[in-house]
């Protein structure tokens, strides 16, 4: 009994209190992530994802220790910690409510944008936000004054604690580096979903999702990278400017999951050809197959490649989603959008869905689009039967409405009609897939038949326009619906090839079949359409002649596929020049931008 009484109860109570604060605060973050559903939050923490929940608690404990050592008091550290927790958690709940996406690390930079915050949340919540800020500042000031009176021993404990927790936080900040131990611990149980940050946070916890969106090094620095070397590349490929060059309308159409099932081994389509309308156009123009990075997903990465001309294959493995991990780090980013805007184009992005997917709203702003039309701002929003998504036909009507102007237009459309889930969309399913006749596959066949029909109708309407108009149409990836048997029979490039075509309403493009990668699209279109090329585009078309398509582990050369690139010295020099420019823009000093290489 005496031993029981002699236990350091005061210390144990303090430890228990701190741990309780940490667990409760992490549960609070889960509540804000799940519309304050206590059932979901508790199941996440203590049933479904316990390991990830307590890994998040460990991170919060280190942050709590850092605050307390900084302020020199556990009590004051607790107050500031709770204020930060309430502030970030509330902001996460509001952002989820308004934009269907969680708070990202970059969002914390917006804390001083008082006017924007007031407009978004309204006056009452804005006043509460200001109250939290004022309270936090007062606590910090009071803590700083009080910490000066601490004894020598307490100051040393405080300093050691501050150095230790600062070091740990700095290490946590490198979460996206391959060797990071915390990332490895998460990887044992985490299923990262980069294409939907909402689901990513759901599945890994608020802390896991937040850490996932911390900065990551885009590329390893090439050994010969320097300003002089970039200047050498620029001089080799820089184009002469022609102020009288033609400025036709340019339309990008990235069609969700649009591909040709008949290219797959073990699959035979009966009941007709769902791509009949598509083929009738593609066979008369510049078209073929495009190499997609992933099977069943990766939309944003393909879009990034098509708009920027940069290849995901050159990035570090941890750079899994450029839209969420790279582009938001920049105030502006060179792309086809910027190139055309400098030539007097109006630029519009259209996506018949919400703005949260892949941080598109922020990314499009960084690229420099003049406007972004989504499901809430589009005028044409009709759907097909029970399909929950806006139809391709409606999306094309939105594009046509933007072309009623004499100013040259660049329109970038990302469709949704053929997005999963595929079942229960249509009452009649005329196509049969021998070899994998699931309801999802049959519904998908009807989906792409409708997309094919809508595309042909759209292109016919473009033929009537008085202005020359060029179109690049492509599918971003295959749908992830095929059986294990079909996937096994088509391992490699077949599961990554989608359809693409380029169309000219003046019918000046050659009827040629090629295999390509999406980062070549703009350069290839400008070359085939005989438009003014940029220096970067000259580099791309030079590389395309030697290496027509590639992604990690898939290289297409001389009409053959391989797992590695087979480059001679001349080809290697071109490839390295491309690598240097991509590093220069994404992780270097952007010397090539200063040389007007993208104009």
Automatic annotation (TrEMBL):
It is a multi-pass membrane protein. The keyword Cell division does not apply. The chain crosses the membrane at residues 12-33, 53-72, 79-100, 120-144, 156-174. Residues 248-526 form the Sulfatase N-terminal domain. Signal peptide: none annotated. Pathway: Cell wall biogenesis; lipoteichoic acid biosynthesis. Keywords: Cell membrane, Membrane, Transmembrane, Transmembrane helix. InterPro entries: Alkaline_phosphatase_core_sf (IPR017850), OpgB/LTA_synthase_biosynth (IPR050448), Sulfatase_N (IPR000917). It is found in: Cell membrane. Pfam families: Sulfatase (PF00884). CDD domains: LTA_synthase. This is LTA synthase family protein. It comes from Enterococcus xiangfangensis.
């Amino acid at each position: 009994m005496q031993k029981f009484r002699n236990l350091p109860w005061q210390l144990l109570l303090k430890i228990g209190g701190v741990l309780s604060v940490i667990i409760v605060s992490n549960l609070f973050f889960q509540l804000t992530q799940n519309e304050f559903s206590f059932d979901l939050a508790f199941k996440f923490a203590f049933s479904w994802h316990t390991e990830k929940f307590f890994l998040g608690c460990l991170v919060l404990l280190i942050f709590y220790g850092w605050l307390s050592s900084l302020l020199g008091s556990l009590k004051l550290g607790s107050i500031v910690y709770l204020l930060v927790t309430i502030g970030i958690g509330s902001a996460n709940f509001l952002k989820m409510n308004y934009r269907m996406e969680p708070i990202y690390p970059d969002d914390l930079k917006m804390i001083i944008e008082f006017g924007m915050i007031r407009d978004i949340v309204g006056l009452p919540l804005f006043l509460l936000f200001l109250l939290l800020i004022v309270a936090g500042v007062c606590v910090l000031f009071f803590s700083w004054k009080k910490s000066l009176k601490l004894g020598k021993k307490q100051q040393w404990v405080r300093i050691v604690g501050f150095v230790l927790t600062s070091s740990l936080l700095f290490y946590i900040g490198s979460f996206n580096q391959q060797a990071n131990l915390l990332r490895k611990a998460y990887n044992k149980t985490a299923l990262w979903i980069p294409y939907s940050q909402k689901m990513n946070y759901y599945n890994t916890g608020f802390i896991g999702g937040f850490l996932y969106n911390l900065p990551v090094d885009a590329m390893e620095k090439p050994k010969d990278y320097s300003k002089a070397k970039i200047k050498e590349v620029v001089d080799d490929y820089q184009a002469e400017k022609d102020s009288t060059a033609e400025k036709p309308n340019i339309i990008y159409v990235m069609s969700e999951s649009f591909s040709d099932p008949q290219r797959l081994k073990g699959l035979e389509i009966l009941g007709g050809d769902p791509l009949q309308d598509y083929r009738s156009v593609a066979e008369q123009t510049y078209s073929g197959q495009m190499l997609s990075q992933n099977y069943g997903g990766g939309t944003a990465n393909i879009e990034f490649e098509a708009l920027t001309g940069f290849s995901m294959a050159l990035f570090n493995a941890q750079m899994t989603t450029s839209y969420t991990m790279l582009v938001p780090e920049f105030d502006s980013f060179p792309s086809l959008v910027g190139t055309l805007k400098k030539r007097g184009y109006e630029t519009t992005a259209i996506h018949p869905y919400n703005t949260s997917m892949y941080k598109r709203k922020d990314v499009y702003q960084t690229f420099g689009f003049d406007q972004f039309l989504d499901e809430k701002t589009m005028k044409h929003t009709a759907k097909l039967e029970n399909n929950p998504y806006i139809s391709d036909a409606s999306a094309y009507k939105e594009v046509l409405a933007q072309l009623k102007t004499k100013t040259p237009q660049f329109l970038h459309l990302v469709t949704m009609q053929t997005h999963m889930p595929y079942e229960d969309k249509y009452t009649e399913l005329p196509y049969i897939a021998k070899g994998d006749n699931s309801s999802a596959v049959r519904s998908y066949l009807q989906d792409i038949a409708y997309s094919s029909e809508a595309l042909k109708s759209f292109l016919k309407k473009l033929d009537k326009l008085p202005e020359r108009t060029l179109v690049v149409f492509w599918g971003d990836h295959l749908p992830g619906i095929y059986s294990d048997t079909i996937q096994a029979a088509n391992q490699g490039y077949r599961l990554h090839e989608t359809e693409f075509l380029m169309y000219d309403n003046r019918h000046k493009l050659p009827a040629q079949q090629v295999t390509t990668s999406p980062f070549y699209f703009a350069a290839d279109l400008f070359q085939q359409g005989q438009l003014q090329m940029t220096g970067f585009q000259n580099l791309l078309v030079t590389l395309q002649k030697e290496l027509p398509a590639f992604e990690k582990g898939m290289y297409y050369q001389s009409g053959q596929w391989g797992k590695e690139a087979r480059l001679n010295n001349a080809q290697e020099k071109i490839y390295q020049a491309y690598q240097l420019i991509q590093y220069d823009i994404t992780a270097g000093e952007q010397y090539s931008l200063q040389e007007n290489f993208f104009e």
